[in-house]
Write a structure and sequence with these properties.
Layout lengths: L1 H12 L7 H20 L3 H8 L4 H14 L4 H33 L4 H28 L22
């Protein structure tokens, strides 16, 4: 919860709220889910599993730093690109898919269970949107251009 609060405050205090509003929504949903889990003491294993999602941030951050620094070695970026893809799947998509399956199959959809299930489904949509941006940016850059020749996603953190 502290990480999400810190990152949200960083976005706000660095005046990135307008261009990063979806990250603030994502963080708000994550904060509310984790606070709910902590207060009730239920589904704590799910909370730990959800934290695995953040492991892939290491490679997303390396990717961003390599892009920002214009590293002269494209081989380093290329290697990270593929590692990032594997880590995104292993630590972001797979745990999220498992938890969604688990909640839809085994958790009573009342009260906190319903709240967490809706939260998971919304986060799934966001994670898939981020994944599609990552794929377009790193693996299909020609798909990034709109009909007017401008980037269809605007100035997004994940693809810049």
């Amino acid at each position: 919860t502290g990480y999400f609060i810190h990152d949200s405050l960083d976005i706000i205090f660095n005046h990135q709220s307008r261009s990063s509003w979806e990250y603030l929504v994502h963080h708000t949903m994550a904060i509310s889910a984790f606070v709910s889990l902590i207060i009730t003491g239920r589904f704590l294993v799910a909370a730990v599993l959800l934290l695995l999602v953040e492991v892939s941030n290491i490679f997303l951050t390396v990717r961003m730093l390599l892009k920002m620094s214009n590293v002269p070695s494209p081989a380093l970026y290329e290697a990270n690109k593929y590692i990032n893809l594997v880590m995104y799947f292993a630590f972001r998509l797979a745990p999220q898919a498992y938890l969604t399956w688990y909640f839809l199959r085994h958790v009573e959809l009342k009260g906190q269970g319903a709240f967490l299930t809706v939260n998971l489904l919304l986060l799934n949509a966001m994670i898939l949107m981020y994944f599609s941006r990552l794929l377009r940016s790193d693996f299909f850059p020609s798909l990034r251009q709109g009909s007017a020749g401008r980037d269809v996603d605007g100035e997004k953190f994940l693809i810049d």
